[in-house]
């Protein structure tokens, strides 16, 4: 996630208060990366089911599943 405003069709804007975020952020679904589980330090929050559905739809688009 980046602390920028959504600007692409594949971006999902996340408000500061959503899921425990400290600032407005953007989930950039076109920038998919694999990360080893060991590199994840701590859980900072949880997004709503509706927001996760939005991210999932954008990922399906990027991956060509739609």
Query: Poorly predicted ranges (pLDDT <50, ≥5 residues)?
Result: none
CATH architecture, by name, is Roll
Q: What is the overall shape?
A: globular
Structural class: alpha+beta
CATH topology: SH3 type barrels
Order of helices and strands: EEH
Question: What is the tally of beta strands?
Answer: 2
Average pLDDT figure: 88
Query: What oligomerization state is this entry in?
Result: single chain
Distance between the termini: 23 Å
The major pleated sheet works out as: 2 strands, antiparallel
Beta-sheet strand percentage?
5-15%
Class, according to the CATH hierarchy? Answer: Mainly Beta
Counting H and I runs of at least 4 residues, what is the number of helices?
1
Number of domains: 1
- Cross-sheet strand order for the largest sheet: 1-2
Tell me briefly what this model is.
Helix content is 21%, strand content 12%.
Folded structure, characterized:
The chain is α+β, with helices and mostly antiparallel strands and 66 residues long. It has one domain (1-32, 40-66): SH3 type barrels (Roll). It has one helix and two strands. It has one helix at 49-62, and strands at residues 11-14, 25-28. It has a two-stranded antiparallel ribbon. The protein is globular, with a radius of gyration of 12 Å.
């Amino acid at each position: 996630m980046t602390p920028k405003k959504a600007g692409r069709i594949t971006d999902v804007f996340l408000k500061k208060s959503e899921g425990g975020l400290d600032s407005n952020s953007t989930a950039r679904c076109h920038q998919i990366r694999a990360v080893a589980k060991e590199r994840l330090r701590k859980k900072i929050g949880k997004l709503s089911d509706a927001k996760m559905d939005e991210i999932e739809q954008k990922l399906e688009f990027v991956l060509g599943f739609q």
